[in-house]
Design a protein that fits this description.
heterodimer; A: mainly beta; four-stranded antiparallel beta sheet; globular; B: 115 residues; mainly beta; six-stranded mixed beta sheet; 12 strands
Chain lengths: 113, 115
């Protein structure tokens, strides 16, 4: 029973490099989202998707791209990493609706130097 | 705009003592409210949720929360804290419409438990 799987768990990037954070879920959830967690700021929504082929911006989308080609996968791309993107990133999935439980991955700790 | 405020950044309680973590929300309609817990190095886990009915909701690990519309609050409580409850706690509100509903999180409260 894997739930939501994020890879990698840790990553160090140099400024200007690009990379993709992977997220996969096996619960057949339509709704998937990416958050970043920074001290004192809680979790802030980066992008979300309500189904394959449908994505939208959250609160802090700049510098990030997403795509949703399958129900299971929702990768997050950093196009040109900046030190301000040093953070812990969480992927979450849930059944569509406002009162449904979100299931979170274990996070990716990203450092940009 | 919808928002969630957790006034206490850090709380320390003794093991066996009672606990109350505060959460205030700003939302025009009936809110969908959640409490999540994050243990060190882990993702978030749902403790409990409220969206209608009885305003006192029970969750996992002995936690409960009370929805008070007049105070726009959804405070989390536990009668007797265990050392394993040390973690970060997040209050969240679901907002939006239909299948575009989003979760907005508060800043989090870090709970430290003294032996």
């Amino acid at each position: 029973n894997a739930g939501v799987t994020q890879t990698p768990k840790f990553q160090v990037l140099k400024t200007g490099q690009s990379m993709t954070l992977q997220c996969a879920q096996d619960m057949n959830h339509e709704y998937m989202s990416w958050y970043r967690q920074d001290p004192g700021m809680g979790l802030r929504l980066i992008h979300y998707s309500v189904g394959a082929g449908i994505t939208d911006q959250g609160e802090v989308p700049n510098g990030y791209n997403v795509s949703r080609s399958t129900t299971e996968d929702f990768p997050l791309r950093l196009l040109s990493a900046a030190p301000s993107q040093t953070s812990v990133y969480f992927c979450a999935s849930r059944v569509v609706g406002m009162n449904t439980e979100a299931f979170f991955g274990q996070g990716t700790r990203l450092t940009v130097v | 705009a919808q928002s969630v405020t957790q006034p206490d950044i850090h709380i320390t309680v003794s093991e066996g003592a009672s606990l109350e973590l505060r959460c205030n929300y700003s939302y025009g309609a009936t809110p969908y409210l959640f409490w999540y817990v994050q243990s060190p190095g882990q993702g978030l886990q749902l403790l409990l949720k409220y969206f209608s009915g009885d305003t006192l909701v029970q969750g996992i690990k002995g936690f409960e929360a009370e929805f008070k519309r007049s105070q726009s609050s959804f405070n989390l409580r536990k009668p007797s804290v265990h050392w394993s409850d040390a973690a970060e706690y997040f209050c969240a509100v679901g907002h939006g419409s239909g299948n575009t509903g989003k979760l907005i999180f508060g800043q989090g409260t870090t709970l430290q438990v003294k032996p």
